[in-house]
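are you around this afternoon, could really use another pair of eyes. what follows is a protein written twice so to speak, once as letters and once as structure tokens for the fold. i want to understand how the tokens follow from the sequence so walk me through it. anything you notice is useful, everything is just below.
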Amino acid sequence: MTRQSRLNFFTAPMLLLVSSAAMSSGLNADERRMMAWIDANTEDAIDLLEETVNISSGTMNHEGIRALGAVMERELEALGFTAEWIEVPDEMQRAGHLFGRRYCDGKKRVLLIGHLDTVFEADDGFQSYRRDGDTAFGPGVEDMKAGNAVIVYALKALQEIGALDDLSVTVAYIGDEENAGSPISLSKHDLIEAGKWAEVSLGFEGGISYDGQDWATISRRSTSNWYLEVTGKQAHSSRIFNEDVGHGAIFEAARILSEFDRKVRGEEYLTFNAGTIQGGTDVAYDFENNRGTTFGKTNVVPNKVVVHGDIRSISQAQLERTRAAMRDIVANHLPLTDAHIEFEDRYPPMEPTEGNKRLHSILSQANEDLGRGSMPIVDPSRRGAADISFVAPYSDALAGMGAVGEGGHTPNESLDLTSMPVAIKQAALMLYRLAKEK
């Protein structure tokens, strides 16, 4: 059975819709009331999803992001939250973020993370919501407007039984998750401060279900960039490899990349990629927009190469080891060439801490009590970086708390609508049980 067929089988409505009869006796009376309320209000949650997907909100569509923020502000204020639009400096060319806060003194502090932006800009042809039975299609339907709605309806379920007052909650709807503004220290400042405030942080990007099980995300790898520039001596190609000309910039760059592959590759969860390369006698490269131009001739030894790549790691220690090994290789360049490498931090790793594992045990038990079985931990190599990584160093954290879909970042992006009530129930139970912890 292929992975796709397993997903289609597992996400069939018969398996995803959790009836009261299927629930374990592990649910108390309040929890059963919440589950019943969620079942009765699932279509309302889907209506909110449709409303938000139909608002175009690519990262650079600032008007659209603010319009979507107004919808989510409406929902949060109806729950008694104080909403605030967080402005960012104009030079960052980003729309900003929406934060909602509802504090109850002495209660567990929880941060819930979503994001408003999608990868589909205003001129993209993929712009509207479409429903076909229990499947919805649309820009951001899975990444992550479903998760944004899950946050709202999990909080509404808590409010229904009077349990919302048992938590202090910050909801962060970030406006530049898909293409973070620079510098990161500014674009993620308010999110990081919220992470320092929180005891627990939950990220609501799409959940993962396959092989007949729901899976939990306790770690995500970092993403950071590297920039390699190599120079050589320009000369007639007939003299290449001579001691007065050397190997030129392209051969030296190829040697460095080959050494990266031979000496640095191999640690579990570590990957690094050379995404673009420009080489010749006249090279220009725009790192911000990943575009470049190159001129050279086959009979001229090239004098410049620029390589742009990324690194993904499971921990900060692994990242630093990798960078050190790459620096050593670059420093040992061939005669008559020069090379240097620079690194740029982007998303830090979300490490699999003991605190995250404790949260996993709570979520897994809740899933069992819903009659869905325990939740194994997903391999972090299956997930990319996310905003929760910025807060994971400061609070216990779980990611992947949203509904289940596929095809994110493509015109085929879709969501299994039967996974919406499941995700809302998982989140509501998680929050309720966190509130009741001693």
Notes: The CA atoms of residues 207 and 400 lie 4 Å apart. Confidence is low (pLDDT under 50) at residues 1-23.
